[in-house]
Automatic annotation (TrEMBL):
Pfam families: TetR_C_41, TetR_N. SUPFAM superfamilies: Homeodomain-like. Keywords: DNA-binding. This is TetR/AcrR family transcriptional regulator. The keyword Transferase does not apply. Residues 11-71 form the HTH tetR-type domain. PROSITE patterns: HTH_TETR_2. Signal peptide: none annotated. The keyword Cell division does not apply. Gene3D superfamilies: Tetracycline Repressor, domain 2 (1.10.357.10). Residues 34-53 bind DNA.
């Protein structure tokens, strides 16, 4: 039986560190997570963490990127169940906001992420979400379903509204009670882009 390739071993190490960090960040938060405990739980050393992610902040960025990619995929899957392209856009935005109720998403992506990594609109994962929104806005404009509007401006505002609504839900005292308010406001804001028929 052939041994693992260097690339396979590196991917396995990265995977172990990501899984350990994700668990620890979700349970204890970024600040209270010990790098020694995190690496020991993965059966690795601090050197492996430094080599793969630079530092604890780099590891958080990788975990946030992983979770945010999963959130985008979940939102797309839920959106795909909606009827029209417009319904899909609204469903994806509302699904993203609702994920603020998930304790792992709430703590890692929406609370610790911005506190440690800065402005979420500058994260690579958010730019991927923005690309998807741009595509949807272009298609809606091509179908004459939206008022004449700049694609970039509309896409950024829709993305920003969903992100800020999720941040609000995650940080408030009663997230489950705040969620429907946030989703309804998102829908109403978005509907302002529709053509009058």
């Amino acid at each position: 039986m052939a041994g693992k390739t260097r690339t396979a071993m590196m991917e396995e190490t990265r995977g172990k560190l990501l899984a350990s960090a994700r668990k620890s960040f979700a349970e204890h938060g970024f600040a209270a997570t010990s790098m020694d405990d995190l690496t020991a739980a993965a059966g690795l050393t601090r050197g492996a963490l430094y080599h793969n992610f630079g530092d604890k902040k780099g590891l958080l960025a990788a975990v946030v990127d992983q979770i945010d990619a999963e959130m985008a995929a979940r939102a797309r899957n839920l959106g795909a169940l909606a009827g029209t392209l417009w319904d899909r856009l609204l469903a994806e935005g509302c699904a993203y906001i609702e994920m603020a109720l998930d304790p792992e998403v709430q703590r890692i992506v929406l609370l610790d992420g911005p506190a440690v990594l800065g402005d979420p609109s500058q994260w690579p994962s958010q730019n991927r979400c923005l690309d998807a929104t741009r595509d949807a806005v272009r298609q809606l404009l091509d179908a004459d379903l939206l008022r004449p509007v700049d694609v970039e401006a509309a896409s950024r505002l829709l993305n920003g509204a969903a992100l800020n609504a999720a941040l609000w839900v995650a940080a408030c005292e009663k997230p489950a009670q705040t969620l429907p308010k946030a989703q309804e406001a998102f829908r109403l804001l978005a509907e302002g882009l529709l053509t009058e028929r």
